[in-house]
Amino acid sequence: MNRRYRKTIIAGNWKMNKTATETKKFAEQLKAVLPKAKWCDVVVCVPAVNIQAAVKAFRDMRVSVGAENLFYEKSGAYTGEVSADMLKDLGVKYVIIGHSERRQYFGETDVSVNKKVHAALEAGLHPIICVGETLEQREMGITMELIALQVKAALCGVGAEKVRKCVIAYEPVWAIGTGKTATAAQAGEVCTWIRTTIRRLYGARVARSVTIQYGGSMKPSNAVELLAQPDVDGGLIGGAALKADEFTAIVNAANQD
Ligand code: PGA
Fold this sequence. Notes:
Strand order of the largest sheet: 1-2-3-4-5-6-7-8
Structural class: alpha/beta
Distance between the termini: 11 Å
Bound molecules: 2-phosphoglycolic acid
CATH topology: TIM Barrel
Radius of gyration: 17 Å
Order of helices and strands: EHEHEHEHHEHHHEHHEHEH
CATH architecture: Alpha-Beta Barrel
């Protein structure tokens, strides 16, 4: 973390979990345990149908609501899709783009990720852009090249002033939902590499202002060590974000003075 130059952001990714009723209940539980004074920003990304309930429930708690996906067109004949403007209008601040589950199960590519990043920024949303290698790719020794490619593709055509509004989440695919966490050194190395990649594209001042998260089995027991890495500015948390006490423990790990 480095609070001098950029925000520390702890974001939950609920994936396809919790109903609107459960969202309300979670907010009540979170309110009881979440510290009032926070050094870090707290975001909860919820399924699209729960956004309205979440915005209402998290009001007055200084917890921002995020979406888990969007479609890049502004409007039209795209049955079942949700646009950036629709999210913005509901009070959404962040949107996860290019999560590995979307790349794996829903055909998302670096090209569609780039279009979605542009759509999010145009609507005034902060994209949380996910990048990460599979186990095979790590074992082949191509992690760094692949990550640079994903970052460059996601940010293609995005101006320097807009890049500051982006969050990059490094999520090694082999660590997501598996209980296998990258070591702090592995996470730190790739997050530093992401910043180097941004620096080469946009210069040092922009690069140091971008929040880079780690995601993949982050939990209370490993959060302090991961967040101690200088280029790990927060977390994107799946499983542990579903329980108010575990999520709060991670917020507390980022909340150290
Ligand atoms: P996990 O998920 O914390 O359950 O590994 C992280 C994510 O997919 O964003």
